[in-house]
Each structure stands twice: as C-alpha cells, then as structure tokens.
Amino acid sequence: MEFHKVSRLLFLAFVLAFPPATVAQEGQNVATIAPGNPQTELQKRGEALFAKHCPLCHIFTKQKKNLKIQASSDLVGLFKDSTISEDAVRQLIQSGIPKMMPGFKYTLEPTELDSLIAYLKIR
Amino acid sequence: MSRSYMVLLILGLAAVVLLTGHPGASQTSAVPSTGLAGTVKGADGKPMEGVAVSAKAEGVTITTSVWTNQDGAYAFPQLEAGSYQVWAQAVGFDRPVAQGVITAGKATRQDFTLKPIQNFERQLSSAEWLESLPDATSTDRRMKMVILNECSNCHLPAFILEKRFDAADWELLMNQMAKITADGGPPLTSAGDPDGIKAGGAKFEDGELDANGNLAGIHTKLWKFYRKDVIEYLARVRGPQAVPLKLKPFPRPTGIATQLVVTEYDLPRERGGNLFSLDPKTGRVTMLVVRNGRTDAEQLPPTPLNEFRSGSDWMLGTRHEGEERGAHDVALGTDGKIYYGANGMTSDPRGYVWYGTTEFNKLDIETQTITAFPKIPVMSHGKDVDTKGYIWGSSNDGAVRMNTATGEWTEFKAPTAYSRPYDLSIDRLDNVWFTELAVDRMAVVDSKTGEVTEVPLPPLKLADLRPEDVDVFNNIGSWDHNAALGQQGPRRMGADRTGDFVWAGLYWSGAIAKVDVRTKSLTGVYQVPNGRWAQPYKMMTDKNHMVWFSNSAADFLGKFDPTTEKFTMYPLPSRGTNSRHLAIDNSTDPPTVWVPYTGAGKIARVQFRTNTGAH
Fold it and tell me: A107 to chain B nearest CA, in Å?
C-alpha cells in the first residue's frame, strides 16, 4: 500500500476513534449536532444499515461515557472534512480497526457499503 | 357497438387501476368486485398458499397485510383511496413490489409471480436461523442452546447471526458487551440480578467482581463462563469461512392460519412522554406528559417509518431493536385506543390503564389524567386488578397489593427467595399468580388466606449438555437476561378470568405451561410447533378461552385451543418483531388481538376472517 493511502487510513482511524471537537465538546460525549435526515433511497438504506450495525460505538449516551466505552466519533459531519475520502472510509469499514472496531468485509455487500457511504455523507 | 356498451366499457377500463413496478408484479383486468385482490403464483405457474401480501399508501403510517389461500388468491379489506405500494413476500423468494392508485369503490387486481432466490438467509426469523444452524454434532447442538440462552434476550439471534466477523472481532464485540448492553445500559445492573447472590438466596463465595467493581451476579457469571465458547462458535459458523448452512425456513401458513388481516401502525420515534395512545381508526398517536402534576396531551405528527428499517422487507433482516423504538407492552383502553410506552401495563375495566415497573401509575381514560402513586421500592413487572379493585404487581420477592384509595400496600413474599418474580395475573377465584423465572416455578397468593404456595415445573431434560453445563445449572443458575442450559423460563403469563387455567410461556424451552387454578397444579406442558427457538412470551386468553401468545424470537402470533389442544400459528408480516406482550379486544367477534413489536417500531392489530380470497 502506498504511503499516501496508509497515512490517510491512519488519520481516518484516529478520527473515528477520537471524536473531533466540532462533534463532541470536551467532557461531553453526547452528540451536539443533529444527524442529517436521509432523503434519497440510497441514503435511507444507508441510515437503516447505520442503525443496525453502528450504534454500539457511534451513537453516544451518557452511560457509555460513564462506563468508559472506547471513545469514537458519532460520524456526524464526517465528510465535511475535505481530507477524508470515500475510498478511505469504505476501506476502513471493511477492514475495521484492530481492538477498536470490527471489520464488516464479511457482512456488508458492496451495494450496502454504497448505501452506508451515501448516508454518512449527509449524516 | 352500442353507445351504452361503450360507456360501460370506458367505465370498466377506468376502474382498472394500473399498478406497475417490479417485473413480478403483473397487470391484469379488474375483478368483478371492489377492493384490492389478486393471486400469487410461483415461477412454475402454480398457486402459492400462505404468501404475505402487504399494502401501504404513500406518506401514511398504516400497512395492511393479508395472506393467500390454497388457490393463491388474496383479497384486502376496504382500503383508503390513495397511491399505494403493494408487495408479496415469502421466505425463499424474491419480493415483487407494485405501485399504483387505489380508488374507493373500484376493483383493483394485482397478481404476483414469485421467483425463488438462492441465498435468503437474511429473510429468516431468529427461530428459523437457529433451526438452520449446524446440528450434526453434539457440540453444534449444544451451541445452539448456548446462543439462545446467553445472547437472545439482548439481541434477537437473527441480528447476531446475519453478521460475519473473524474471531478477533467477535471477541472485540464481546469485550464491549462486558461493559454495556445493546440498549446502552450497564449490563450488570440494568436487569436487577442481585450482586453476588444466586437464585434462592445463597451467596457466591468466590468474591468475583464484575466490570463495575461489584460482586459478580448470575448474568456476569453465565456470560463469563460461555464467552470463549461463543466467540469460537461464532467465528466458525459466522466467520470468514462460514460453514454452509442448510436453510430451514418454517412451512408457509396454510388453511386457517392464512385467514387474518394484520394492520400495522408505524409509531413515532418520540419517546419523551409518560404514555402514548394510538387511535386505531386514524393511526394518530397522542403523547401524554405529566408536567407539574398536570397531564398534557400532545398529538404527534404522523411519521411513516423509513421503509428500509421497518422490518417490512424481510430481505433486509432483523433490526437492532434498541434503535427502532417499538412498543414493549400495550393495553386496550375502554375508549378503544391502544396505550403503549411503558412496561408492566394492564387494562382496568373500570376505565383505567395501569403501568410502571417501579411504581403503580394510573391513567384515567375519561379524563386522560395520569396519577402516580408513591414509589414502591420492590416493584417488578406484571400487573392486574382483582375483583375488589385492588391493584397487584409482581415484586422483587413476590407480589404487592395496593389499595388504590389509600395507596397502602402489602407485599406477599414467595416461599423461595430471589426467585425473580416476573409477570402476574389474577384467576377467576381472585387468586394471584406470578411466575418465578429464575427457579422454574409458578407461585400463587391465596386471596382468602394470603398464603403463598408454589407449583414447580418439571426439569427440562436436554441431550448434548456437558458435565460443566450441569455444574453451571446447579452452581450459577439463571436469572432473566440469560439462563443456564436446562432452564424452562416461565416468564410472562396470563390467567383465564372466566376459565380454569393459568398459562405461562416457557421462554427458554419453547413451550407453554398450563396450571389448573382449582387444584393449583401443573396439568400440561405443550411444545409450540416450530417453537423450540421461538421464545413464547406473553399469554392471554380471550372470551372463548382461546389462549393467545406472542413469540419474541419468531414472527408468529400463537393460538392454543385448550379443548382440542391444537395450536394455530398465525404469521406476522414484519421480520424481527420481537413481540413481548398482547392485548385482546373481546368486543369483536371473533376477538381481535393487538401485538406490539419491540423489535420494529410498530404495533399490529390482528383480525380474523373466514376466507382469505374474499373481502
């Protein structure tokens, strides 16, 4: 894998693991920005997949904070960061992050990944 | 051609509603009646019985479903005029969807052809998934029981089994679960298993601590014991090289089991209120909120569910129930509305709905006013009202009776300590029954003497257990969220207020139990058809003594006729319903059954008829 791709993935892993300040304020792990509403079929399918596979880590609650569940981004506004590419997000969802996030390469079909990405773009 | 014939022809053509869409949905001529009707055939041209056909109008919150008869024919009751999606569904086949306009008073015919598909594992209910897992070896048969007993109360098994991860990722998820439940709560305190204490009251002597630093209880000890086996098993059957499964869907419904109309109401995601009412006529939901001692009613805007997360498309699998905002309990009000949004709900014929798990709360239906009675520190789940007007509820140690005039309460303790009293129901003799989930017993409070006695259930004999499983059964035991292998699990229950029996769903063994209230003795245990993994749950009887029961892990509504001892398993049109409660409307003939879905954001009304092919 070329260096550029590796560094992108490492950066994205960091973003997914540690919430950016725009999403979660210091000392507060509950989302402060409401997720976007899906409008298209693809986005709606993606929202359905997000609600099925991602809430354990990517929907914050006070209890999760109190119980010191591993910190992660709630992915609201993820693609507003211009350094994050669709390919990198897709690859990360598939491969996961060792000891932090399971990889979905055996679970999600490519078309499902398309839907999930479409939703993440408006979340 | 005469002028009058021409007019008739034009009118006839106008009556044909053109439904278009999926190739499997075909257009044909109008049938000589009103309403939506048609036939469903297989790719071989033969009629298919027991196919679910559902219709939902654009922008509304109501889905109506019927099933085909032996001729493959279906017919809807009268539907509101509107622009509809109509789809046909059967496990193992594709799901053709038609779209078009239904006009009041006009006949609409829509035929479907279903084509078989190769991999339909995501269409399976949890019970079908477990049935389909490998079972050629004793190890495999044991692990199916482990998955059911250790995983199913927080996640429907289908939700887990649809996924595939390698061993490291299954372990990662299990490690997270040590800290938090699927719904975001701490796993070790959310369900109330006592710290460091076994069912029956003995202490665990090893001093083991849970993730919160408290003495480990039954949940934690069971989970820790089976954790390694579960990781290895899931990585084998649902891992990178998952074993090929021989999918075993249950047979489609036939005969009388197809003769129903199910109306599903999408529920708003709003949960800020104390209680909610659903108007069956309109589908509108009103939220009741207590503010400064006053009950405010706010009508919520109709919000159709995202169709891809509603359970309506079985190919999209089983939902994460914590995200879908369904209803756990329901109660039928004397105003004909369905109340939901709380646990431990029951209807009071005097015009009240009771609810709450830590206190008795009363909704006066006429005034739409909620009254909260003083908190009772020992409350648990089920509630019922006796003939004297006292409200009863199960408690941590037995049952509690409260005088609704004074708020004074009395507890009646079960002979067995720490037995996990769960649901409660009152028989025609005014005796108060409750289930003891952790010790496989039923208990009854004699209304005249106050004495509490117990009725034990027979031991569940299972092949394929290992000696260590027996040790776990004897030395760790069971509570409510998970259980040792061999536990029967009497959980929710219901007494026949005009009959002789009390019924309990056996959650871990897939059966229902019958207790005679005259002799206070167990008089039958009946295995539910295709029910080993179905987790029979709430039991209720109707005015004809028919026994109705929900099944949390199978998308069926069960009926048991105590005279013929025959079951009828009625299909529900959504996947992953996880229905855990019921309400019965005896004002209709035959009675109507209401089924809340915990696993999908809907409540279903189930009505019965005599011919699926006619309106």
Answer: 5
